Amino acid sequence: VVAEVGGGVDTVRPGDAVVVYGPWGCGACVKCAQGKENYCLRAEELNIRPPGLGAPGAMAEYMIVDDPRHLIPLGELDPVRTVPLTDAGLTPYHAIKRSLPKLVPGSTAVVIGAGGLGHVGIQLLRAMTGARVIALDVSEEKLALAREVGAHETLISDDKAVERIRELTGGRGADAVFDFAGVPPTTAIAQQCAGVESDVTIVGIGGGSVEVGFGTTAYETVVTAPYWGSRSELIEVYDLARHGDVTVHVETYSLDEAPKAYERLHANEVRGRAVIVPGS
Predict the structure, then answer these.
(1) What is the set of domains in the chain, with CATH numbers?
(2) Which of 32, 38, 95, 113 is positioned for an S-S bond with 180, CB 3.0–4.6 A?
(3) DSSP assignment of 51-96, as one string?
(4) pLDDT tens figures, 39-90
C-alpha cells in the first residue's frame, strides 16, 4: 500500500494497493522502452540491482520504489496470496508465452519441478493452451500439488522419466519442456524428452545446461534460458488472477520467522511459495 509519494508523482497516491515489478532497468534503453526491463542493456553499467537481489527488498514494513512505472495496481486481490505472482507468476508466464504457437490441442508440455514456480506454470499452461501437461518432481507431495492444480499426468523425476514421457506421447516426445529446477539431472531429462521442432526452456538456475548440436537434440529444437518477464506481462498475469485462472499456494511467516522460511525452502519443504508478512 502506497504510504507516501515524492515530488512529481501523480500516477499513484497514498492508500493505493499496488504490486512492485521486480527487475528494474534504466527506463531508457531499447529493451526498457519495450517494457522489458528484465533485459535492460545498461543495468550492469549503471549498477542497477532489483529489489531483494542486490538492493533492499520488501522483507520490511516499508520499501522505496524508484519510479511509479514499477507499480502495478492490485485492486481487490489479496496481497498475501498474490504477491508471489510478481516472480512465481511472471517468470513462468514469460517462459510459456513464447511457446504458445507450439502448444496447440494435441500437444504435450512437460513441467519439471512442481514447486514454487512449477505449480503456477501448470495452471498457466491449462489456462493459456490446449496442451496435455505432464509434471515431474522428485517429491510425491509436490506431485500431489501438481495434480491438484491441473496436471494431466505426474511422474517421478528419475532415470525412467524420459521413457515414460515417450510412452505417453506415442514416441513423439514433448512439444515444449519447461525446467523449473535447472540442475544437471533435470536439464538432461529436458533435452532427452523434447521432440522434433520443440522448445526447451531452462527457467531454473541450478547450474544445468543443454548441449545443442546435430544429433544431441531433436531436429530444430529451440533451447532458451529466459529471465523474469516484462512490465506488460506482469499486468497480464494479474489479469489472469482476477479472472481466477491462477492461484498461488502460500505458506505465511512473520518477519521474525523469515529464517525459518529459508530453512524450510532449503529442505525442500515449502508447499508452493513462502510469503513474509510484516506485522503479522
Answers:
(1) 1-85+230-248 (3.90.180.10), 99-224 (3.40.50.720), 251-280 (no CATH)
(2) 113
(3) BTTTB--SSSS----S-GGGEEE-TTS-HHHHGGGGTTTHHHHHHH
(4) 999 999 999 999 999 999 889 999 999 999 999 999 999 999 999 999 999 9
